[in-house]
Amino acid sequence: MKRPADAQTSALTIIAYKYPDRPHYEWTGNMLEKTDDYVLVHGQAGRRLVHHTRGQTFTYATQSLEYYPLNAPFTVNIDFDAHGASYHCNVCLPPRLDGDTLSFVDLDLDYVRSPAGTWQVVDRDEFLVNQRTFAYPARLIEQAEAALTDLIKRVTEGRFPFDGFLARQVTRLSQSVSRPPD
Fold it and tell me: pTM of the entire structure?
């Protein structure tokens, strides 16, 4: 069900796990839209991310638009400011929404785009190490590789949400934040 454009946003806790269930990151954002297929989240500048794996907390100076498909094995995080936007796509098990918590299991492989527009696969080395360290099942490894291949094709072919949908959302958020109140 789609949330009306003028609806109040609601706080959402996002938790990223490492396989199979080790807490990795945790942060809070504002749910902008929820449909049967995806959740859109806005992260305010100044948001704090708890990095459980490193035992640290980070504060982000940029805003973010976060896209969580509820039926696909990836996420998209776009950090943006007046200087541009960078995309970080996680290959993961499909995100799950349970009340005011959205969670997913990060499978290490990432596809990222710099503000200059260059895309690249990163963290393949982490994926290889974690396969052995955490005994990833063969089926999980195959699923992660297939998800990365599909993600790259979505981006290359301009398929949803990489068909301009996310860029329009970033533009809308940028304009609403920079516009003075009425």
Answer: 0.92
